[in-house]
Amino acid sequence: MKQDDGLELARARYGLFAVLASNLAIAGVAVIGVWRLDGDKAVIVGVLTAAFTAVSSMTTAYLGIKAVSNTAKSIALRETREPAPASPPAQRTP
Prior knowledge:
Blueprint (H helix, E strand, L loop, with lengths): L1 H35 L4 H41 L13
Helix pairs in contact: 1-2
């Protein structure tokens, strides 16, 4: 069980790192794009909207997948810990 905990911790860390790195890359490209556009407001709004959408989608997807994974794991652990339901007593015939 301890090995599974370590694996889950590594997955959570590297998944969060991947999301943060992606978000920083998107934000960096958006900042460079806005800087290079020299004040064309319509295009700047488009670039910033696209960047915000990409960052929020990436973050929401990661958090949603992580929540579902944690829920499934807790359900699976609960099922293995609970004893099997007892079978009903056999009925006697008179």
